[in-house]
Amino acid sequence: MQPTALYAASASAEGAATANQPRRLIVTVYGLYARETENWLSVSSVVRLLRQLGVDEPAVRSSISRLKRRGTLVSENRDGVAGYALSESALRTIREGDRRIFHMTRATSDDGWLLAVFSIPETERDKRHEMRMILTRMGFGTTAPGVWIAPAHVHDEVADALRDSDLAQFVDLFHAEHLAFGDLRTKVSQWWDLDGLQELYSQFIAQFAPLREHLRRRRKLEAHDAFVAYVQMLTTWRRLPYLDPGLPLELLPKGWDGARAGELFEWLRQRLVEPAHAYARGVIEA
């Protein structure tokens, strides 16, 4: 069975292409459902679930192999059944993502800023890329080469990520205030790609607002359709909280779509999560 006609009609070509990347869909399915089954899903159940999302078996198996090579999944047979579990590093990233995706916090002007300055010796230069990846994932922007900035409320999350990655020894974190010079709102638009983020939020609203209208008229979806819609929506959404540092609203451009998109995501999540869960459990336990 293919994704619902409603979803297919409402999805923009670009948004659908991103959401339908098999690897991203597989990570979403594992993040949602594998942790409830002792961090393991059989290959056959993943194939059956992804089939509902329009991904054929060869693409699923190829994507699983790539995720294994990347260290996201580890092969594990249980009672003679082939399957995969999330690696420890993937589990840490997904747990970290739970806070961002489902409990995103917005800063206030009184919170101040978190500055990160790191120095990694040439002998360990491979860790520079990892450091930049973590800071980017935490929503940091850059004020100047080598000086990274984020709202101060992300401190604990950032410190945990740096410790877990054994990178804390290379970085200093500072709690700061912006004193001078220039308009802070203008500066913020230089430190982060807010135009690009605004476009992504606008695409999310255009893609999923029709689903909300459909649910308002019909009040519910069948479990299968709820599963398809929820996994597609979460796969599209889950990268946005990593790009959005949760800046104070007064520093964002007028007509900012981030808040509207967040409200839409939460409205749909509350209505889709339980029937989607019921459908997935039925497939996994079959």
Explain this structure to me?
Helix content is 57%, strand content 10%. With 286 residues, it is α+β, with helices and mostly antiparallel strands. The chain folds into three domains: 13-89, Arc Repressor Mutant, subunit A, CATH 1.10.10.10; 113-176; 193-278. The strands form two sheets. Strands 5-6-4-7 form a four-stranded antiparallel β-sheet. It has a three-stranded antiparallel β-sheet with strand order 1-3-2. A hairpin with a 7-residue loop joins β2 (73-75) and β3 (83-86). α3 (22-33) crosses α11 (223-237), α10 (194-218) crosses α13 and α11 (223-237) crosses α13 (258-284). The longest helix has 27 residues, at 258-284.
Number of helices: 13
- Portion in strands: 5-15%
Radius of gyration from the alpha-carbon trace, in angstroms: 20 Å
Report the major sheet: 4 strands, antiparallel
The tally of beta strands, per DSSP, is 7
Oligomer: single chain
Strand order of the largest sheet: 5-6-4-7
| Overall pLDDT confidence | 88
Low-confidence stretches: 1-19
- Structural class determined from secondary elements: alpha+beta
| Amount of helix | 55-70%
User: Given the C-alpha coordinates, what overall shape results?
Assistant: globular
Distance between the termini: 17 Å
Question: What keywords describe this structure?
Answer:
single chain; 286 residues; alpha+beta; Arc Repressor Mutant, subunit A; 3 domains; 4-stranded antiparallel sheet; 3-stranded antiparallel sheet; 13 helices; 57% helix; 10% strand; disordered N terminus
